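Hello,

Our lab assistant flagged a job as stuck in the queue for most of the afternoon. It eventually completed. Since we weren't sure the result was trustworthy after the delay, we are filing this so someone can double-check. Below is the sequence as submitted and the structure that was eventually returned. Let us know if re-running is recommended.
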Amino acid sequence: MARQDQKEAYHAALLVRALREARGEHVVGYKVGFTNRTILERYQVFAPIWGPTWDTTVMHYDGRGKVCLQRTSLPRLEPEVVFGLSRTPPVDASYDELFDCLDWITPGFEGSGANR
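-- returned structure --
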């Protein structure tokens, strides 16, 4: 993804965020994708991609969970790092300062695929 495309994508994501918040949805954490450095060049992505997770889309499971894939074609699970912050980190935060802002962290999966 060219840097300009990524900039435009983040701008579009902020517009979508405003719409979701306007209809009452709440950010409950953040996810980081493209953390596997071996695939970055293949997809022309040059840094991990961050995005919010929403109270309307996050599913919590104790142990096992099921997701119906019956209405999707070519479903895929994409591993993500998912976390919540207890406070906003400083703009120039060190790794230690970022770590101190973590409230929780968990592995997660994003389901993707075309709907039938």
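-- support follow-up --
The delay was a queue issue, not a problem with the job. The result is valid. The chain has a mean pLDDT of 84. Residues 37 and 116 are 32 Å apart (CA to CA).
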